[in-house]
Amino acid sequence: MKRFFAMVLAMCMMGTTTYAAELPAKYVTAKPAVQEVTLDGHSEMMQCYNINGYNYFRLRDVAQVVTEHIADPYHHFNVGYNKERNFVSIDMQEEYVPVEGSKTYVIGTEEKQGVLSDSQIFVTSWYDAQGMYGYVIDGYTFYKLRELAKVLEMDVNWNEEAKTIEVASSTATRGEGAPRGID
């Protein structure tokens, strides 16, 4: 009987250890970068931070360029933040509205420390944002563009030759006139 409990305990510990290894780091070094991103063919130079080899973009910047350069309003989104309840809202199929009086964020040239965000993400669609995480740098939260694209049902690809990120809205990814839902 003792062996049985020892095996169960060992298996539980292995599962915990494996899960813990998959969690993102709480503190990271964020290197400022400017990345060319094409949105349905429109080229935009966007500020971001490179964290562990991945580019993280400020959510409001992505909302603004998507609203400006993606023709299909199906992919547009607005961003909100509820400080008291500590959650970020991504309001699907809405035009981005900048926060009144907010300043343009400039990443600068210095490396910064990023802290894993503890804010919950609420998306006004079917998408489960569990597992989508970002890093807070200078009071702003930055996310991977590929993870945001899943929420927006858009395609993201890396063009190695041009060294650009290509974002494409596509009715092919969701089917013409299809409602949002799990495939």
Label the structural class.
alpha+beta
What level of helicity do the residues show?
Answer: 10-25%
State the separation between the terminal residues, measured CA to CA.
45 Å
Biggest β-sheet, characterized?
6 strands, antiparallel, barrel
Strand content: 35-45%
Q: Please tally the helical runs, counting DSSP H or I stretches of 4 or more residues.
A: 3
Using only C-alpha atoms, the radius of gyration works out to 19 Å
Q: Write the H/E string, N to C.
A: HEEEHEEEEEEHEE
**What is the domain total for the residues?**
1
Q: How many distinct beta strands?
A: 11
Mean pLDDT: 80
Short summary:
The protein has helices at about 1-20, 60-70, 145-150; strands spanning about 25-40, 40-50, 55-60, 75-80, 85-90, 110-115, 120-125, 135, 140-145, 155-160, 165-170. The chain is built from 3 helices and 11 strands; from the N terminus they run αβββαββββββαββ.
